[in-house]
Amino acid sequence: QDQIARSADGSYVAVRDDAPAGPGGQPTVFVRRLDARGNPVGAETSIARGSNPGVATFSDGSFLVTWLAPPPPTFTLTVEVQGQVFDASGAPAGAVLALGVTGASARPTALADGSFVLATFGNFSRVNGPSGFVRGYTRTGAETGFVAPLHEDACGIQGPPGVAGASPPGV
């Protein structure tokens, strides 16, 4: 599943996962930077084993890639969400982040203050309550305390959430 985010300078960051090779194979998450015209900047880079990547760009040109970690060998309804911050040149900045769990997807949105929110969706609201959550994090992966539950609509339509960040007035 591919995702793309635009940086403040007009360039882009694209992420994707590949199909697993054979039964039990684990997909890999890839990142590629593109210039403002969509031309590749450097090579596509494999960054982690995982699936369903998301990407968000910060105002300083750095960016965050999130993904779902490979599931454990035993049955579970949730998988770990992991993330990595990269600097504006595309180099990893800090360690891999542990960002909680989800059942199906996790999409990051960068905020003007340099923090981010992560919208998760699980496809199991009728069993366990909310369909997902929006949680706030610092750039280093610490939870800020902001948590908002997401519920499926009255018609039972489910799908990954989308969150947009807005700049404060005057920014």
What does it look like?
By secondary structure, the chain is mainly β. It has one helix at 125-128; strands at residues 3-6, 12-17, 28-34, 40-49, 51-57, 63-68, 79-86, 97-102, 105-110, 116-121, 132-137, 143-150. The strands form three sheets. The chain has a four-stranded antiparallel sheet, with no helix packed on it. Strand 3 and strand 4 form a beta hairpin. The longest helix is centred in the C-terminal third of the chain and has 4 residues, at 125-128. The radius of gyration is 16 Å and the shape is globular. The N and C termini lie far apart (33 Å). The model has no long low-confidence stretch (mean pLDDT 84).
Describe the secondary-structure layout.
Elements: E1 3-6, E2 12-17, E3 28-34, E4 40-49, E5 51-57, E6 63-68, E7 79-86, E8 97-102, E9 105-110, E10 116-121, H1 125-128, E11 132-137, E12 143-150
Antiparallel strand pairs: 1-2, 2-3, 3-4, 5-6, 6-7, 7-8, 9-10, 10-11, 11-12
